[in-house]
Specification:
The chain has 305 residues and is mostly helical. Helix content is 79%, strand content 0%. Helix 5 runs parallel beside helix 7 and helix 9 packs antiparallel against helix 10. The longest helix has 39 residues. The model has no long low-confidence stretch (mean pLDDT 90).
């Protein structure tokens, strides 16, 4: 799960999330969400008798309906607070933070499954493979896509923001239910793997779409800066592409700081344009701070006087 976390963090190549906040989300999934999910499952499972006409067994009820409802809710609670953070920008951030929560949850859940099945080596190996390759990934995808929906809605109207909560939760619960239904009710790992593969493709597609959107946004915002003479026009296309990570196009002693400052400047300009009230004032100050930092770095490198 830690390896998966590093991969999705690094895949966010334009504006990687601060590691402390990333780890807070990961550890919420690993401890807080698991604890509250356990409590919630215990409470709601006591009402099983009201649903027994619809489910053949208590186990199916808990796996197919109860687990997705409770677990996606407990994972999502902390994500809502992360979305409110001013460092949270867009769909990509939602995928990363939501994925981190899901991976933390998957890590602890896997560990508990590994312990409870440790008496039989053959069973333990099968469970280890399935849960490491698929169940943990399912948690990452489901909560990551919830985050993507919330990230899409953050800088939009109040109506869209309100609708995004039930829509995002519904998407997360559907993925969770689909996986559990395949392996529990149908008893088919192959169907479950096929279903989860489609979900993986969707996750990667949304991630790539968001990164392309970020690239266009950075290009547009920095083009505006270049048109006003605040940074060299030849840097705009470089700063909005993977080429920025290679040396040679700017002084090496400022390259990393310049990339960071210019990228944050682009994001803060976008956020300022789509915010109101105190948030707008905050982003306005951030734009001035990072614009001054870009100017200072370019002065140091001799690009401007």
């Amino acid at each position: 799960m830690t390896l998966y976390l590093i991969l999705i963090w690094r895949y966010d190549r334009f504006d990687r999330e601060p590691v402390p906040l990333l780890l807070k989300n990961f550890f919420w999934g690993a401890f807080g969400a698991v604890l509250f999910a356990f409590i919630g499952s215990y409470v709601f499972s006591s009402f099983y008798r009201y649903f027994q006409t619809f489910f053949v067994s208590r186990q199916n009820f808990e796996l197919i309906l109860l687990a997705p409802l409770v677990e996606e809710s407990t994972k999502g609670v902390f994500l809502f607070s992360t979305v409110a953070n001013r460092k949270f920008d867009n769909i990509t951030d939602g995928l990363v933070y939501g994925g981190a929560i899901g991976l933390g949850f998957g890590m602890t859940e896997n560990f508990l499954y590994f312990l409870s099945n440790s008496s039989n080596l053959g069973t333990w190996v099968v469970i280890m493979v399935i849960r490491t390759l698929f169940s943990g990934v399912m948690h990452c995808i489901s909560t990551g896509l919830l985050g993507a929906v919330l990230g899409y809605a953050k800088f939009r109207s109040l109506t869209i923001r309100l609708i995004s909560v039930p829509v995002g939760l519904a998407v997360a619960m559907f993925i969770h239910m689909g996986w559990n239904f395949s392996v529990a009710a149908l008893g088919s790992i192959s169907i479950g793997v096929f279903f989860l593969t489609l979900c993986m493709v969707l996750f990667v597609f949304v991630f790539r779409f968001s990164l392309r959107t970020e690239k266009k946004m950075i290009f547009a915002e920095l083009s505006e800066e270049a048109s006003e003479g605040l940074l060299p026009s030849q840097h705009v296309s470089i700063l909005s592409s993977p080429e920025r990570d290679f040396p040679g196009w700017v002084n090496e002693d400022i390259r990393k700081d310049y990339i960071k400052a210019a990228t944050v400047l682009a994001f803060r300009k976008m956020q300022m344009r789509n915010s109101f009230g105190f948030n707008k004032n905050y982003y306005e100050r951030e734009v001035l701070i990072h614009r001054a930092l870009v100017h200072k770095l370019l002065q140091k490198a001799g690009f401007i006087e």
